[in-house]
Design goal:
By secondary structure, the protein is of the alpha+beta class. It is about 45% helix and about 20% strand. The strands form 2 sheets. It has a 6-stranded mixed β-sheet.
């Protein structure tokens, strides 16, 4: 069983959950060797180099995948998926965010992840928050990524169900390490995580269906 890890702050609660779980140590240790940005994990899952990952929602519809009801969801604003208006440029780390910018007809440089969060906190007026704009136009959350597996679905389904039911408290030493590594204060990390949810219920599925339809219409 090989799980691909997105090493961004938005999945810190999930990583803390896995670390504290009763899963085999070999599985936990493998996470550090199979981590990458969303676009890398999209590729690795498609090529079966990993068995499961939380991947870009726009690529999650592939028939090879079994989809679980867990992912990365922005309730309204997100502060870590941005566009700096000007000349268009994709962020190579993300597929969903680049597609969302096109769906929303926002032209500029797409920036995602922890570096985007840091940039936003330093100068929020310089960027368009894509999740916030999506919510203003649709009144729906935005599903950036979804837990997808190619094998051992029951194993990963059990993990996913346990995660969404459990209240996760991030230990201070882990919070301090992430703050130092990412250049974002502990307080800002905790405030940021309040913007994120992980369970994909009916409302989130409706939002995802709408987004995927709009992406399809762009291509036609």
């Amino acid at each position: 069983m090989i799980f691909g890890k997105i090493d961004y702050i938005n999945l810190l609660p999930f990583h803390v959950f896995l670390k504290g779980s009763s899963l085999p140590n070999s599985f936990k240790q493998s996470l550090e060797y199979k981590k990458g940005v969303p676009s890398e994990l999209n590729f690795k899952l498609r090529r079966r180099k990993i068995d499961a990952a939380i991947i870009s929602s726009v690529t999650s519809t592939h028939p090879l995948y079994k989809r679980l009801d867990v992912g990365i969801v922005a309730k309204k604003e997100v502060k870590s998926v941005l566009v700096k208006e000007g000349e268009y440029a994709k962020d190579p780390a993300s597929a969903s965010s680049n597609a969302l910018a096109k769906v929303l007809h926002v032209k500029g440089k797409v920036i995602i992840g922890d570096r985007a969060l840091k940039a936003y906190l330093q100068n929020p007026d310089a960027y368009v928050d894509l999740a916030k704009l999506w919510n203003e136009r649709t009144k729906l959350p935005f599903v950036f990524a979804r837990f997808c597996v190619t094998k051992d679905k029951r194993f990963y389904e059990k993990i996913a169900k346990q995660f969404v039911k459990k209240r996760i408290k991030i230990p201070r030493y882990i919070l301090a390490r992430y703050a130092k590594e990412r250049g974002v204060s502990q307080e800002d990390i905790l405030e940021y995580l309040k913007l994120i949810s992980y369970e994909i219920g009916p409302k989130e599925k409706r939002a995802l269906k709408l987004f995927l339809t709009k992406v399809k219409n762009l291509k036609e």
